[in-house]
Amino acid sequence: MVFHTGSLRALLEMGVFHALPVDGTGLTAVALAQALQVDRQLIGEYTEESDLPAKNHNLTCVFSVIYLDPQVQDLFKLIVDEYLPAGVKFHNFFRSEGLQDPVEAKNCPYTFAHCTGGKDMWDYIAQYPDRFRVFNNALYAQSTSATWPVTLYPFNKVLSSLPTSENAPLVVDVGGGKGQALRVIRKLSGDVKGRFILQDRPEVLDDITHELPGIEKQPYDIFCPQTISGARTYFIRRVLHDWPEACIRSLKNLASAITNENVQRIVISEKILPAKGVDAVSTWINLADMTLTGAERTMKQWESMLAAAGLCISEVYTVSGATDAAIEAVLK
């Protein structure tokens, strides 16, 4: 499996999938090697290992056409280039650091595997523009492909019942990436008055190339004091699972921005794992989170973490058959 995945990654890097005709006619390995200026033997070795289909001795892209999608490319690169090296060195990390759950962002399976020199993943990968672009695009692709969890929370019903004004902050999307969720929230909110503010690291906001009408962008570090106080809703999606108990600091920052507990709340869009019988996909995601010291959480763990930040759960919105949830939290 490792060599199969590695061969696909090598073929992607060579440009093989883009060079093959999409009409299924294919190219011979010799013609492909000449077109890409790579060794003929190398093409043969990698295509055999990756099971690239052949027709009349021509290599075709019948199944590999999926890799022509830029978002799929970046997701695949993220998994192979960033997460896989950490995953295959789990045993080395735990042998070196001890058999305990990693909790230090600068000393975790990812930083161990990539030799980050004392930097956490975020600061380390920001040094490499191409890798950072892939990382950011992959997260954007993953998020936009499944925006339905954002709709679990009744934004219009809740926000329209609260006093608002044109210039007051309505929704602050904390760590909101390229604004994929906030665009959905703005649409769901209908004609409710107020400002929609997207917060994330400066390099993430700088990487946004599309228009975000009606949305303000503001650089922000989740571990710093919240700069927008009084917002009706602080929304944070797919962020807290990247951090261990340190994310309590982030939640405390949000809690301190609540000036009127009667009309303000925090909405967390994350998974809630069952206490027993976790499905395979959630388990895989949990292991990926662990490379960065993060974790998916059970209801009991969410309650405990929120309580440590001075918050309590007021409502939980879920859908049958899925672990995704919207957790509404207010001051205790």
Automatic annotation (TrEMBL):
GO terms for biological process: methylation; secondary metabolite biosynthetic process. Keywords: Methyltransferase, S-adenosyl-L-methionine, Transferase. Gene3D superfamilies: Vaccinia Virus protein VP39. Residues 99-310 form the O-methyltransferase C-terminal domain. InterPro entries: COMT-like (IPR016461), COMT_C (IPR001077), SAM-dependent_MTases_sf (IPR029063). GO terms for molecular function: O-methyltransferase activity. Pfam families: Methyltransf_2. PANTHER family: HYPOTHETICAL O-METHYLTRANSFERASE (EUROFUNG)-RELATED (PTHR43712:SF1), PUTATIVE (AFU_ORTHOLOGUE AFUA_4G14580)-RELATED (PTHR43712). This is O-methyltransferase, family 2.
